[in-house]
Automatic annotation (TrEMBL):
TM regions (residue ranges): 6-22, 29-48, 60-81
Protein name: YdaS protein
Lineage, uppermost ranks: Bacteria, Bacillati, Bacillota, Bacilli, Bacillales
Family: Belongs to the UPF0410 family.
InterPro entries tied to this protein: Transgly_assoc (IPR007341)
Amino acid sequence: MWGIIISIIMAIIIGIIGDAIVGHNMPGGVIGSMIAGFVGAWVGAWLFGNWGPVIGDFRVIPAILGTAIFVFLLGLISRLFSRTA
């Protein structure tokens, strides 16, 4: 039970850090940050491998880098669609 709670909290923290690095305003608030943290952890592990400190089953450094990339791409896509609409 505690593992799930720690994973959710780490996803939120990683999502907020990744959003702060990129400078976008992540839509969805805490839930959006949590989703970005989970997706970013997956992207970071896929792109950068599994290295660095582990907290709550997250490799922290690749997860933050992956989240920053994910939020950046999400911001580009949202700007693209807002210009065409």
